Amino acid sequence: MNSRTARRMMQRMGMEVEEIRDAIQVTIKTPNKEIIIDNPEVSITKMQDQKIFQIMGGEVTERKIVNDLILEEDVKLVAQQANVSIDVARKALESTNGDLAQAILLLGQR
To answer: 17-64 adopts what CATH topology?
Structure first.
């Protein structure tokens, strides 16, 4: 079955498929991590009052989130730049609301 025949069958069943051709990035956020998909192929299937988003391909990157403002990779960067432990870097980032530069400066003053 070719795509045109499949599309017609779906339309008869009340389904409509729309492609988002210019999607650059899709981000999925959970309490513990962020999933970033660059250059994805995205389509939306509309069926009755529902929308189903389908994301295919692209380069996938996952990042752990320490809290809502602070990413694990930021903690590692501050720890490396300020030459401190991960825990000290995390506390500095928390006290500066996730501001990397401020956290490094704060730790440099010690």
So the answer is: Ubiquitin Ligase Nedd4; Chain: W; (2.20.70)
Q: Which is nearest to 22 in space by CA: 41, 3, 36?
A: 41
Scanning the chain, the segments in alpha helix (DSSP H) are 3-12, 72-82, 86-95, 100-108
Q: Which CATH class is domain 72-108?
A: mainly alpha
Give the pLDDT of residue 15.
Answer: 86
For position 49, what pLDDT does the model report?
87
Of 43, 46, 42, 44, whose CA–CA distance to 14 is shortest?
Answer: 46
pLDDT reported for residue 35: 92
Spell out the domain ranges in the chain. 17-64, 72-108
51 or 6, higher pLDDT:
51
